[in-house]
Amino acid sequence: MNITRAALCAAMLLSFLGGQGRGEGPLIFVTNERSGDVTVIDGSTDKPVETIKVGSRPRGVQASPDGKKIYVAVSDRADKSKESITVIDAATRKVVGHLASGVDPEQFAVSPDGRLAVIADEDANAAAFLDLAAGKLLGTHPVGTEPEGVGITPDGRFAWVTAESANNVTIFDLGKRAPVGTVEVESRPRVVVFSADGRRAYVSCEIAATVIVVDTASRSRVTRIELTAPEKPEGIVFAADGKSYFVATSHGNSVAVIDAATNRIDARIPVGQRPWGIAMTPHGKIYTANGKSNDVSVVDTKTRRVIATIPAGDGPWGVAVAAPRK
User: Fold this and answer.
1) Is this model's pTM higher than 0.85 or not?
2) Average pLDDT of 33-39?
3) What is the SS3 assignment for 61-115?
4) What pLDDT score was predicted for residue 18?
5) Average pLDDT over every residue of 103-129
6) Measuring CA to CA, which residue among 62, 79, 53 is closest to residue 118?
7) Interatomic CA distance for residues 214 and 98, integer angstroms
8) Distance in angstroms (rounded) separating the CA atoms of residues 326 and 289
9) Which residues have C-beta within 8 Å of that of residue 122, sequence separation ≥ 6?
10) What does the pLDDT read at residue 324?
11) Strands 136-142 and 147-152: what pairing?
């Protein structure tokens, strides 16, 4: 082999190695509550490619609408000055900022335009409103005891905040940043998500082992879906076609598949131990954060089977998917 050809082969090898973990698929970011870090997974290979230290007790995680930033709720009960919404640059996988979060941030939601985050401040029993561009809190408002989950309607007009101990959901008008109603649900509501058209809200109630479906216009219950012990519903994600939704069942060690038209459970997909957070890629793969087995299950929604199990940190909690990189 001559020198020119050897140099070319070496350059190709370096290029290949440098591209590992940088495929065309989305990036998946998993918060690890106990180890204080975020596991980054390449969605094209389903391999972990990075571990990012973010601080004590990271839980809620969301991607910006353009997929360029990842926001992580960091709740440090030993040092309140370190509590923040930590910002990660998705392309470089580096921490690039720490934004005001209020007291003990748990879960939060980002508005469709990417300008506002609404945060459940658990210990303060309040919802906080964060201007993401300015990095400043616009204000807080009391909600029910132990706020947990936050969902923003697809049109960006309203935020729904669940309260674990109050067993209700407070609805905020985001234009006014003021409450406009309350919906009673069942024991220990965790997460709220919406159908693509915004007509229905879905609230997982952990202790009641139910998912409550609410008409968003009338703010009245449509139905309740009962799970089976030891299942405890946590995260919820909709299929891209809206025909079904998937519920992480925590102690059930599975994902329940529910038909959106009938609100009946179609199937249960075994995953890792204590699945909590759940997210879906644009290509229809589901990722569950399994808090007890310290891993992430990857589910093919077409076959309804686990196709990979990925090691994570200690106590995987939340999952967010960043848009494909350019």
Assistant:
1) yes
2) 97
3) EEECCCCCEEEEEECCCCCHHHCEEEEEECCCCEEEEEECCCCCEEEEEECCCCC
4) 37
5) 96
6) 62
7) 35
8) 26
9) 75, 103, 104, 105, 106, 146, 147, 148
10) 52
11) unpaired
| CA-based nearest residue to 179, from 200, 154, 201, 160 | 160
- Separation of alpha carbons 319 and 300, rounded Å: 16
- At 182-208, the pLDDT tens digits run 999 999 999 999 999 999 999 999 999
CA atoms within 13 A on the CB side of 62: 23
Burial of 106 (0-12, 13-18, 19+ CB in 10 A): buried
Q: 99 Cβ partners below 8 Å, 6+ apart? A: 71, 84, 85, 86, 87, 130, 132, 135
**What are the pLDDT digits (tens) for 53-96?**
999 999 999 999 999 999 999 997 777 778 999 999 999 999 99
Would you state the pLDDT for residue 4?
39
Q: And the tokens for 273?
A: 């131990």
Q: Summarize pLDDT for 162-183 with one digit per residue, the tens.
A: 999 999 999 999 999 999 999 9
Q: What is the mean pLDDT of residues 9-15?
A: 38
Distances in Å between the alpha carbon of 59 and those of 120, 128, 196, 201? 11, 16, 25, 22
- Determine the pLDDT at residue 30: 98
CA-to-CA distance for 305 and 298, rounded, in angstroms? 8
| DSSP-based helix, strand, coil % in the chain, nearest 5 | 5, 50, 40
Domain definitions of the chain by residue range: 25-322
Q: d(Cα 171, Cα 76) in Å, to the nearest integer?
A: 27
CATH node for 25-322:
2.130.10.10
Q: Which residues contact 209 (CB under 8 A, 6 or more apart)?
A: 226, 227, 228, 229, 231, 232, 233
Residue 22 has pLDDT above 90, yes or no: no
Q: How far apart are CA 162 and CA 211, in angstroms?
A: 13
How far apart, in Å, are the Cα atoms of 62 and each of 38, 249, 262, 321? 12, 20, 29, 8
Structure tokens at 315: 């106590």
Q: For the stretch 155-175, what's the b/e string if a residue is b when 16 or more beta carbons lie within 10 angstroms of its beta carbon?
A: eeebbbbbbbebbbbbbbebe
